[in-house]
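DM from R.C. (forwarded with permission)

"hey, sorry to bug you on a friday — could you get me a structure for this? deadline for the figure draft is monday and I only need the backbone to look sensible"
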Amino acid sequence: MRLFLIGSGLGGYLRGLLALRCFAVLCGLGGLFQVLDLLETSTDILSRGQGFAGIAHYTVLRSPSVLLQAVPLATLLGAIFSFSTLSRQNEICAMRAAGLPFRRVLLALLPTVIAIGLLHALLAEVVVPRSQKALTAWWASLPPSPDKDPDTELLWFRTAGAVVGVATVMPDGRRLDEVRIYRRDDAGQLASRTVASRAEYADGAWTLIDAVVTDLRAGRHAPVQAQLPWDTRLKPSDLMRLSASEPYVSGGLAAQVLAGSQSGTKTDSFYRTRIARAFSDPLSALVMLLLATPVAIALTRGGAGGAQVLGALATGLVFLLVNGLMSALGEAGTVAPPLAAWLAPALFALLGLIFVYRLDRH
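My reply, with the result:
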């Protein structure tokens, strides 16, 4: 219990200091990222006749995704600003003179770090998937932009027991044009191909129109069928999600795709990496706090502290870069998903603990 005797007074002050600065930086970074995003999309929104009300609606639906991207960097900058403030006001000197090791300061900050990690997990697994779904549905309901030609390339995705390609997904997801369905047998060999001019969803079921089924093993095809029931778990909402330009994949959705209850367009390694990242990403807040610790005594040694601030910022950015690179390698199947998700947080957390150890030794 001694760890939190710093709790009610000094501990509360430290936690509030970190929380306030992280929140302020998160709002600032989120606003900056949102402006940069609007610079790219506002013209398209206006060309679809939505006006400034459409831009405002897009901003509201897009904000959770933007905030999720900003959380790790906001934690790093918030910790740097907090430790810099404590150092400039000689509060770190006072705590060390009172015999308080710096690791106790970090332990007092853990509740704030845990809250940031929970916020990250809440955004990633609950808020962003819902806002992305609403944004995709709203965007699909808009009239096409006159400045862009329609995309005629097939959209490929996996569903239970089949690989499906479609040329066009209607805005409501209830009609598909130029459908291709490839099925495999238990040995993984192609068993059949179904080609249909379109697929329509009504009364909870799909129907293929003008469908031709080819038995690839026997090398023969059946006559054209005007209507053919399509046994699939796909729902219109699934098609709207899959047809989004950059669909967001949460850990929960990735687990459902691997279990076969949802459809996906990526490989198994991609979804396994996303599941592993769902557990490792919230720990980025703790890693960022540890990497910012050299700033805490920057001013107590008579320097301006600029080198420590830049060093902490550079180390945090390198962590984000390495973590993103490992994630890309895991999603591509080059690196095992657990290693891709956990290597960078583990290495940089160890580096941060070394910083703390050296600070307490000097």
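R.C.: lifesaver. Confidence is low (pLDDT under 50) at residues 1-5.
me: no worries. Residues 2-143+266-361 form one domain.
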